[in-house]
Amino acid sequence: MATIRELARLCGVSPATVSRVFNNPEVVNARTRDEVLRAAQQIGYQPNASARTLATKKSSMVGLVWDTDHRRPGWRHPYFQEILIGLKTALSGRGYHLLLLATSEEKPEESYVHAVRRHNLDGVVMIDSGNRDPSLGYLAESGIACVSLDRPLEGPRTTYVTSDNVGGARQAVRHLYEQGRRSIATISGPAGTGPGTDRLRGYVEELAALGLSQRPEHVVEGDFYLSGGVAAMRRLLRAPEQPDAVFVAGDEMAVGALRAIAEAGLKVPEDIAVVGFDDIELAGLVIPGLTTVAQDKAGIGAAAAEAVVAMINGADAPPPQVLPTTLVVRGSSRL
Question: Where are the bilayer-spanning segments (predicted)?
Fold first, then answer.
């Protein structure tokens, strides 16, 4: 691999001038800068990333904080996979890479902040796992550029991106009502998560708007995973009054609900209609196809990337972004 000294000799300039071309190009005259860049391409010179970080105080790296419970297969959840694809694609297009960060349980007030500063990261994107880790609060207050997904956090350079979870839930309940359903239950997300809380709120608000009574036994908390959907639906099927529809706050849980309904010898949608939330790929593959509230998952990742890069480049923290959702009607809710 060509060295900085070889490139400097070829161009007839000092190694310091070559370094400035790559790290502070605005201080080098255009003619010299163009000659160095042309020569670098010809001989295959690549600036040393570590040295460049030291010179510019920027690493072109964004940290990813996702403190998922070790007992749950969070990384394999299809919703998060699509978010990460959107985030990575948008960051790569802006010249940034992602670095996964881990925390220390011994000193939560220091862990993420120290990790960011140790690696000289330019900013951080945080995914809500519902764990309410106090170290996330310290990170948001640190002055580091931070974007949170699905979890409002306050800080001098902090913002968040989420979907219209309340509105999407209301749309799902309204759709079930329009299909003639009057006993509508829900399998909610975990109470500790922003989406879980907001989708339950949307369910409650829409029932009230439609003049339907809310039955406590028709609200069962889930965990956003397949097995949690199976267990929650089995509980609903044991209720004194069996619901004729269920709004499920996540598609993986909804697929689990479909399984539990089939195991009970009932049919979807004839006996019980089902609507999910997310529109993961599996929603269109199960039989019957799952009606669901679609989130713009790639758009969420891209919006997070845009916000964190803007703050890295000196902009003030942008206002929170709430992306719209869309109801996708399939066979699980309509006869």
Answer: none
